[in-house]
Amino acid sequence: MSIIDRARPQVRALTPYSSARMEAGDAAIMLNANESPWAPPGDAGRQLNRYPQPQPQVLRERLAMLYGVEPTELLIGRGSDEAIDLLVRAFCTPGVDGIAICPPTFGMYAVCAATQDAAITQVPLRDDFSVDVEALLSTLPETTKLVFLCSPNNPTGGCMPRADIERIAGALSERAMVIVDEAYIEFAEAESAATLIARYPNLGVLRTLSKAWALAGARVGVLLADAPVIALLRKIMAPYPLPTPCVEAALVATDADGEALTRERIATVRAERRRLADALRQLPQVLDVYPSDANFLTVRLADAKASYQQLAAQGVVVRDVGRYPLLAGCLRFSIGTPQENNRLLAILAEAATGLEERTA
Question: Count H helices, E strands: the chain?
């Protein structure tokens, strides 16, 4: 059985919308999309009066080379969120099928499932934040169509062992799509699961330009998967997901100069992550700094609420992740510039001094 056979029959049978831009080809005069024939003020040759390509060929080829897949194995969308939503809508019949997640993890998997009225099977991480593979495989209902694995995980920061990903994908080869979310993989010293797609047609990998590539505002995300899966999702994808300025920004960020700069910044983030973790462990209010392969640190504090307020009062906002399972009393600190990290440490050190004086 092909994994496509597990998708919703309505989606498999769907005739996709054929957009005007797809039909235009290289026509010199385009009168088929009811666009304005005039460019807007300040257009500077960008042709913003015209709809963009649904999947821009140059960017698709650029990202396929970057991620080591064929262009037909790649779907570009509005951040990783769009791909998550498309996967749930394509594979989960409302009120019948479901997904599996391993909390604490990225919240959009559950949001997209709930929107689709898909059941959510939760297999919590172990106390060391690792995925319990045995529990996951033995717990899944037959109606589970998607398993989301975040590696490095958000908000805990750790990577999944490659062997665990392979074991899950192999065990579910004819049952469910296994989606590995690698939004933070550039900051880890780990190989992408994308190299496994050729062996496991039920494996998909989410990538994004929002984090390491500094394009959070452009919303460019990617799903890497077997070509039939990509073709299936394109059936239900909006016809023009990528605004022209976002495509242009992505092409600049991923050209030779942009890639070299990104590699330098990744090295800086890794060095700052180590420095910040070491410094935080010296502070009396810090109870634990968890290992991270991402561009953030999850930190347990004696009084997380007080620390959050102390930072916020001086203009530094961090993320309170205490609502997640296993993370009571924890804050998540993104790795900033060296100067921003110094400011974070200075505020926490000042608060620690005040605490020691009050308790002396």
Answer: 12, 11
Distance CA 31, CA 72 (A): 29
Going from the N-terminus, what domains does the chain have, and what CATH number goes with each?
A: 3-38+50-254 (3.40.640.10), 259-359 (3.90.1150.10)
The C-alpha atoms of residue 140 and residue 160 are separated, in whole angstroms, by 19
CA angle 240/4/77 to nearest 5° reads 20
C-beta atoms surrounding 316 within 10 Å:
17
Averaged pLDDT, groups of 10, the chain, 360 residues long? 91 86 75 88 89 93 97 97 98 98 98 98 97 97 97 97 98 96 97 96 98 97 97 94 95 97 98 98 97 98 97 97 96 98 96 65
Query: Which whole-number Å values give the CA distances from 201 to 84, 88, 130, in the listed order?
Result: 17, 17, 25
Q: Cα–Cα distance between 327 and 330 in angstroms, integer?
A: 5
